[in-house]
Amino acid sequence: MMTETTLSSYVKDPLVLAQENFSSREELFEQVAQKASDLGWVREDFLDRIKTREETFPTGIQLMSMGAAIPHTDAECILEEFVAVITLQDSVVFQSMEDNNQQVKAQIVFVLGLNQPHAQLEMLQSLMGLLQNESALSELLLANTATELVSAIKKNNL
């Protein structure tokens, strides 16, 4: 059965950030939470919950040529589903999901704002597929604007 849990169906312009600079993952979370909150997409506890969850269950993933992270939080604080896609000029440090003592310098971050558990699982699986696709990933990383980033996602059928 084919389901529509594709990245492009959840990617929404206000939360697509290309070539950003953040001093820390906390600052990245704050920016995403602020935008999502302004849009009415998350409850006010979203920021605390995503920070806490990231400390407890880190989401950094070390790839061959770069690092990525897929932070997410509890379904009940998401009012309108989204996946924020952020590419970074300077990487932001996350802890590795495989080993909390390992640091991952993430250059691309997908913040999942999903409120259906099965969708969250399917999205994680499809993102894991994307993270193994070096050519699609490098296209995303080369995008200079949110518009280019969204079209790279669509072009690669993500």
Automatic annotation (TrEMBL):
InterPro entries: PTrfase/Anion_transptr (IPR016152), PTS_EIIA_type-2_dom (IPR002178), PTS_SugarTrans_NitroReg (IPR051541). It comes from the Bacteria. PROSITE patterns: PTS_EIIA_TYPE_2 (PS51094). Residues 9-156 form the PTS EIIA type-2 domain. This is PTS EIIA type-2 domain-containing protein.
